Amino acid sequence: MPFDDIRGFIDALDKSGDLVRVTREVDWDLEAAAVSRRVYETQGPALLFENIKDYPKGYRLFNGSIGTYRRVAIAMGLRPDASIGEIHAAYEEREQKPVKPVVVQKAPCKDNIMLGDDVDLYKLPAPMIHEGDGGRYIGTWDIIVSQDPDTGWSNWGMYRFMIHNQRALVGFPAPFSHLAMMLLNKYVPAGKPMPMAVVMGADPLCHMVATAGYGVGDDEADFAGALRQKPVELVKCETSDLMVPANSEIVIEGEIMPDQTAPEAPFGEYPGYRTEGAKHGALCRVKAITFRNDPILTMISLGVPVDDSSVAAALTAAISIKRRLKRHNIPVTDVYAPPEGVTHLVIVGVKKGGADMVRQIGEIITARRAMVNKVMVVDEDVDVFNMGEVIHAFASKCHPGRGFIIHQLEDGKANMLTPGYDREERRRMRGAAAFIDSTWPVEWPEVEIPIKSSFKTIYPKELQEKVLRDWKKYGLD
Amino acid sequence: MAQEYSTMVHTLDDLPDGGETELFIRDLTPGPRKYDSRHVRAKVASSLDKLPGGDILRIRSLVGVMFPETWYIKVVKDIQDYQPGQPYEDMTS
Predict the structure, then answer these.
(1) What percent of chain A stands above pLDDT 90?
(2) Inter-chain contact A128–B36, Cβ cutoff 8 Å?
(3) Nearest CA of chain B to the CA of A326: how many Å?
(4) Which residue in A198, A284, A193 sits closest to A244, CA to CA?
(5) Which of A6, A163, A238, B2 is the most exposed place for a label (fewest CB within 10 A)?
(6) Closest CA of chain B from A280, distance in Å
(7) Which of A163, A168, A280 shows the shortest C-beta gap to B87?
(8) More confident residue, A1 or A459
(9) Torsion, Cα of A329, A330, A331, A333 (10° steps)
(10) Which stretches of chain B sit within 8 Å of chain A by CB?
């Protein structure tokens, strides 16, 4: 059964032993984030901070909603111990059947409404996440809703926004994100403010699809419905036509200005490092804040993996890449983005490899924007979800001289958050990608291909069956 | 008691020692409004001798590293809370 809201999910985590309620007072200024970060680094539970310094009783912070595959499985209604492969398969299967949202008139997120001059972002316990960040990031584990002014297409993305002042946010949806493309191609040339809503504390699967790379015109709410196997309930914003999940905890409504900016960041981002921010961030004038009674502000103390971002983005990126490769008739077996690779590294399994295939795969993955800049291709005998097997294939099959294909990325295509690019590369969004060939060359005759020395590949099938049949007779369990 | 603010610069040379400049500062006063941003015209200096009665200005690099030097600031006036321009102008120009 899908969760109707984040509260149901929190209760489920509580029952499964995947949540700790922190009842002692915790400071929103670094302390909540520091505790959360340490919990990530010790593979600990999700955290509900129930007593926030400077804020009324009942106001809460929730960190780490799907920071482990186990919690993703719970969010999807799967067995908590479902394997990564099983989670991928369930996601892939469900997203084939988008479910349209339904519109409701009454919504819990309208319990409290602040409008106009009454708007005060400091009424919410926005955390200061890292020492030295540019400001208080209220939007980290969020959904940013925007709309194409011509087609009416509604886009969800997960982008960072920090408090600028009482009634303004400043953020950094990447310049090649769908939101930024709409902003720069449509609203800015027309000199019109762009309506936007920041949603916190929706159903966890709504947040997960906000990290996904669906195409222009694809409505993430439909895919959230697909994952939930039940429509998402949407309600109209107070000050715009944008539609937001009705059961959200907090919705901040505003407009990104076409001709006003403010410095944004720095912020310790998902690659696990803090790099320079933008001098001209997207400035959002806040027109309304609506929120549930006793609101729960969802957050992510971003940093080195593994955390919510690295798990959710790894899952959605891998499935999106697999979908794209299939569309190009690549004989893909599966795709895995290991969370530790912070969506900079993906492993692609193929039925038939070779240098040309590896180059083609790499070019497809980096064609529009290269969030991923290391693509390793392995043969189908390698389980892409098993990093032991992947490392073995890389170490043994990748030719040190011919196995690395370096692909230059022109201005505007590279990931400006890649810490390994220099300052100018990050600013210009230029760089390079490496396509790593860990497959056998196609030109090698079959009889010359080295034989993998594993139980399944180097012994006669009859002997394998006998060994398995007699396993206990050898005194083995 | 002196107020405390922070700002960000590429290098300390970006600040006119003893001079006047425009900059975004964040108010470090403890409480729920900590880190509130202001866009101001202000005098800044690297020592109190150069700016008697100045408030404290903590300075960080663009990646958030705190410079060890404490500077001082006197706000001359608040100006509009934004800088004119298009979003991402510095990255897409």
Answers:
(1) 94
(2) no
(3) 33
(4) A198
(5) B2
(6) 5
(7) A280
(8) A459
(9) -120
(10) 8, 24, 26, 30-39, 60, 62-66, 81-92
Model pTM score: 0.94
A270, A344 Cβ separation under 8 angstroms: no
The whole-angstrom separation of Cα A88 and Cα A76 is: 11
What would the two tokens of residue A286 be? 């806040």
Angle at B67 (CA atoms; ends B62, B73), nearest 5 degrees: 90
Is B90–A278 a contact, with Cβ atoms under 8 angstroms apart? yes
3-state secondary structure of A11: helix
Is the ipTM, as predicted for this complex, more than 0.95? Answer: yes
Instruction: Identify the closest residue of chain B to A133 by CA–CA distance.
Output: B64
C-alpha span between A211 and A221 (Å, rounded):
12
**Could B37 and A165 be called an inter-chain contact, meaning their C-beta atoms sit closer than 8 Å?**
yes
- Helix-, strand-, coil-residue percentages of chain B, each rounded to 5: 10, 45, 50
Taking the C-alpha atoms of residue A44 and residue A67, their distance in angstroms, rounded to an integer, is: 9
Match 């990255």 to its residue by tokens: B91
Of the candidates A166, A183, A278, the beta carbon closest to that of B91 is on A278
Q: Which of B84, B85, B92 is opposite residue A175, by nearest beta carbon?
A: B92
DSSP string, A256-303: EEEEEEEEE--EE-TTSSEE--EEEEEEEEEEEEEE-SS-EEEE----
